[in-house]
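Data card: per-record layout.
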Amino acid sequence: MHVFHPRRSRLDAWLAGRSKPRLDHHVESCERCATRLVERAPALLHLRDALIDALAPPADFATRVEAAIAGRAAARADFELLASLLTLPWQTSRLLLSDDEVRRPSADEDPRDEQVD
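The structure for this 117-residue chain is written out next.
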């Protein structure tokens, strides 16, 4: 009986943990494939490390993100202060004037018909 050995891409998938149970059984029982895996593993580990280094964020990434967040928070605080200052006259008049003084006559009321005490 002739044994078929998996291609290199399937062995690489096995090393990466993406294999089928049938391949697991073959690798565990085949000395030739086990040897190929031992020879192939360092090259794949080197490739993995190179990819990690290439895809890693810059060293100052966290500092830049924190600075951007702090800048946005400061801008928001400035906006909230400006909004508070712009509404200050309205808030002050609301506190100083009672509801009766602020009440407007309805459409069927004539403001000239007010009773004088």
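Known properties of this structure: Residues 1-41 form one domain. Residues 11 and 37 are 7 Å apart (CA to CA).

See the next section for split statistics.
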